[in-house]
Amino acid sequence: MTEVVLLTGAAGLIGSALRTRMARPGRLLRLFDTATLGAPGPDEQVIQASVTDPAAVTDACAGVDAIVHLAGISGEAPYDEIQAVNVEGTRNVFEGAREHGISRVLLASSNHAVGFARREDEPLPADVPFAPDTWYGWSKTSMESMGQLYHHRFGMDVVALRIGTCRETPPHVRSLATWLSLDDAARLVEASLSTPSPGFRQVWGVSANTRNWWSLAEGFAIGYAPEDDAEAYADQVDGEPTDLVGGPFTTIPLGER
User: Is residue 136 annotated as a catalytic residue, yes or no?
Assistant: First the structure.
């Protein structure tokens, strides 16, 4: 039987990485994004639409087994834009999942949901309380809270991935602690899709970094086995990390790109 996975935000950095890394026999990837995705492969379907369009999202959820929800504004922006895309868009995803009986949703949350947590409290557990650093970070707390609501109301399994610095290589000294490699991002998503009955839970999206600020225990509990370490790139970055998890996001102007 074919497993159908809806991947929103499929044209982004992480979505593009997952598109290739998640391909396998017996799985159909339904790729959803406002951007052009190119011609679909033999085990792909492409939908060019926005998560702000509830009808398009609901239609995309038909026949789906699980959702990996990456779509959204990926940095600070004006409040109204953040609210419309990240919060209302996520509500549309959950409503589509509810209407079509989809039992598992993975959320791309962020370390910026807890950006004002202090790194000296390391290793921070994945369920450290909300302390958002921007409207962007606040939107991720709203997404996580929505996940809790749909779990308790409708029994959905929801895994909120508090993603660190997901890039091909660590771009700065802070990321020696916060880096999530693209390969480990795929490993984390696969673990979150396959772990039995996760309920609602938060997991740090981070690689096996020597300088990690965050606990990997919650990831290990669902079968996540990261293989990459930012320390391999330590001689390529410089600077000093801040004491706050959110780094420069804790001081940038609210609502400005």
Answer: yes
